[in-house]
């Protein structure tokens, strides 16, 4: 929350020394409040005043960092309830749960699944980012799972789940340099748990029976000086967790209450009760409604292909269209006889068109020139998708070496480009494609004969 | 001090009734955001429909064709089978056979099929067209006439054909119509205003504001729905207070994650699993953003989504 000029003025030494470049301290304070000057320009301001200012101007929700190196992730730091208001900043991360009550075979299988489901989509790595390891009853086994994950070649952040401080202490010893989440802090053990992470940036995962108790617990933990927290909206029913997740975010952001200003963890695995598709449903709604860490029971491509792209969509800037890299993309194993189909680099257009091309089963080279990330008509109107820009791309992209076919299909909506393109690319046969993407499969099948 | 946050709105989503008799359903009625029962009245729980076609579903995934192999060539038998076996809230008959780019069947023939389907079931019926606006205009006129008294939803009227669809569908034969716009709050609003200028009441309109599969520009779908709901409830915008229906399966069965077979992409595993997962994810997302009804294809997706709705509305 921003401070007013007068409030900042009260924190200044009021020497009117002019060293900041302003005639008076009041003028300086006003400028700082308006964002036109840095408070650090005042050479005589006290550390205490600086701290106060930092606190007052800090974001309403704290950003928490977990993991290390390639597996370092930022959580929280959100400023709005809906993505159209302002971008959702830090995407939620998916965790997979292992516990000492699972058999070794089960654990090995899940680790193998984590390794297996790892792919890149629009420049982003899609994988399980966190391994959550839970203590149920067998301490030695719990420790051995942590070691097993450490010794595997997975690159992941850790979440240790355990409510017994003495067991947690031993577990934490193994991975404390990896900045794991220490989950399982409750009203009975919080003093010992805070002691375990004192002086570090290791976040504590807090759980309580209901929101009132959670609120009190946060205040108690903060009093002990630890402010790296992750909140579990608790509860055992889907309805209640949904309500609590929304309440926490709303009380924090619209209610300006920093007590709830932390990222959250949702145990979708427990709520889904072993039902895989329910886990997908819950993974979806809590990606949209305020989960920061979403715990799953297992991972396979069926889950991944739905949940990761969904998340990739939700955490985008509403003011910037998503683009695909301008390039030549082979579809359906395009080869040296396949025709070339050209469209724009607006991600939505690319995905719809490439999806229809895939559906046709006809091998095609997709040529995506730089069209400014606009849709076909917008790019054309903006002069970014023209006969000369398409011709230039065709000549420079190397497509003429990849296929002997000289059929170039352009979107039906820019049929007007045909004449000019034909002049620019005399070796090619310019074919006007369909007006709508859904007509592509039929069109391509007929073209292929 | 901890204090619960309660959000009240001045607006309310209107109620639209579909079907007749005991199995009739009501969409809409909410005065708060989806499933936020802690804020106030969430209205009628969202409804789940199942998609069938007027012609054999050649391009459906194999496991679904196997499931319906005894009935899929007879739409009325297929509808009855679904009503008895899976008990969705409604059935959506998609008249694919009328498509001018496909079989281009005459509209009267398609209307007779729709009638046979409606007569075979007690569930409310939603009839979807081909996506060809000119043909759909004529198609819906014929269907509306043939199914007089059934109180069906004609899905969907678009800016190119809304006059024909609204005149026959609502004014002449008293059905409900879907107002289809493509993922833009202003386009949705504009079409609703045009319909109201023809004298169509909000209570006869369900919006289809467009959809996409999760991962395919889905953020536009979510934000459009969020904004429509916030305008309808928060600003009491009467031109956006109709319930929303989302044909999830129309989109999710087009994308590569769903259509690729196991031999195409062995590493992705079971095709049916992927199809259900994509359908469930896309449907859950639109439900928490404001859809009052979703149309699905796979019985397992229907079961899961009904379960989710029950849990969230408990």
UniProtKB/TrEMBL annotation, chain A:
5-methoxybenzimidazolylcob(I)amide binds at residues 343, 349, 373-376, 437. Signal peptide: none annotated. Gene3D superfamilies: 3.40.50.11600, Dihydropteroate synthase-like. Keywords: 4Fe-4S, Cobalt, Iron, Iron-sulfur, Metal-binding. Coiled coil: none annotated. One of its GO terms (molecular function) is iron ion binding. Residues 64-443 form the CO dehydrogenase/acetyl-CoA synthase delta subunit TIM barrel domain. The keyword Zinc-finger does not apply. One of its GO terms (biological process) is acetyl-CoA catabolic process. [4Fe-4S] cluster binds at residues 17, 20, 25, 42. This is Acetyl-CoA decarbonylase/synthase complex subunit gamma. Residues 12-44 form the 4Fe-4S domain. Pfam families: CdhD, FeS. The keyword 4Fe-4S applies.
TrEMBL record, chain B:
Pfam families: CdhD. Signal peptide: none annotated. InterPro entries: Ac-CoA_synth_d_su_TIM-brl, ACDS_complex_subunit, Dihydropteroate_synth-like_sf. Residues 15-249 form the CO dehydrogenase/acetyl-CoA synthase delta subunit TIM barrel domain. This is Acetyl-CoA decarbonylase/synthase complex subunit delta. It comes from Aceticella autotrophica.
